[in-house]
Structure prediction request, 130 residues.
Amino acid sequence: MTGLSHIGIATTNIEEAMKSWLLLGFQLIHVTEVPDQKAKIAKLRYDGLIVELLEPTSDDSPIKGFLDKRGPGIHHIALEVDDVDHKIEEFLNAGVKMIDKKSRIGAAGKPIAFIHPSSVGGVLVELEQD
Prediction:
């Protein structure tokens, strides 16, 4: 691991959620849609900390499922790694349950993969190639 990439926060309305983060001093980097994740994503930065707001764009979005089950709040923590595919292989060989068996492209255009929460004390962890 090379560092913390961002903290993902699920919300039902990005525009409303952004207001609080902007008041806290965060600056908007960009808003984008990620069709394969069925989500609208806003990235905000305060110094070196990045918050990623996640809003579902369809009823079958994983973010919608999370919101229905747990409500708005921290969805995942993303860690930077040198090589996502190498980490996936390493973790699978160690018996870590992975959601993604191979990397895919995330909202930042970088390879990502998710570790299943059951392998990390109930926390969804995203690996993002830096």
